Amino acid sequence: MAESDTPHQPPLLLPDAARQGADPAMAPLRLETTQSREALLDGAWWPRSHNIVAELPALITELTSRLGPITRVGLDSAAWEELPTRLIIDDRVVHLDAHEVGDGTALLTRGDGDYFVLLVVPPESAPAAARAVMARAVRDENITEAAQLLVAEPDEP
Question: Within 13 Å and on the Cβ side, how many CA atoms surround 95?
C-alpha cells in the first residue's frame, strides 16, 4: 500500500499549546495537563449561561488557538435553551449536534475525527464548587464519568 493510500490518523496527543495560557483558578475552561489523554475527560468548561449562541464562540476560539480547528460539537439538548445546527465562529462553520444524553459533557471534533470530551459545569454552579469539579475533571488519573463528578462532594476524588 502506498503511503498516500494510508488513511489519515489524527494525533491523539494534546499539543503543547493546550497547556499554556489561562489561569486555571479563574478560567471557565481547563484542559488536561498532560499530553497523554488517558483520563476519561480532556477538560472542563463552565459556561456562564444556557445560551449556546452566546457561550460557544469564546470556547471555540480558545480551543482553536490551542488544539486547531474545531469542526463539530456534540451537546446535550436538555442543557441549552436553543441549539442551532451550525454557527459561524471566526469565519468557520462549526456544526452542532444535539443529543439527549444527560451526561454533562460536550464532545468536540477536531479535523476529521480526533475528538475531545469536556465536562460541562452547569452555569448556575457556585464558583467554589465549579472550580473544584473542574480541577477533579482534569486530573491525569481521573476515571470518574462527568455525570458522577457533577454530583460528587467537593472532597471526593
Answer: 7
Cα of first residue to Cα of last residue in the chain, in angstroms, is 47
pTM of the model: 0.77
- pLDDT one-digit tens code per residue, 49-92: 999 999 999 999 999 988 889 999 999 999 999 999 999 999 99
The 10 Å Cβ neighbour count of residue 54 is: 12
Max CA pair span of the chain = 56
- CA 93 – CA 107 distance, rounded (Å): 16
H helix or E strand, kind and range, residue 94: strand 92-99
| Separation of alpha carbons 1 and 95, rounded Å | 34
Residue from 61, 78, 72, 82 nearest 120 by CA: 78
Give the list of residues 6+ apart from residue 156 with CB closer than 8 angstroms, or none: 136
Which distant-in-sequence residues (6+ apart) come within 8 Å of 155 by Cβ?
Answer: none
Distance CA 76, CA 118 (A): 12
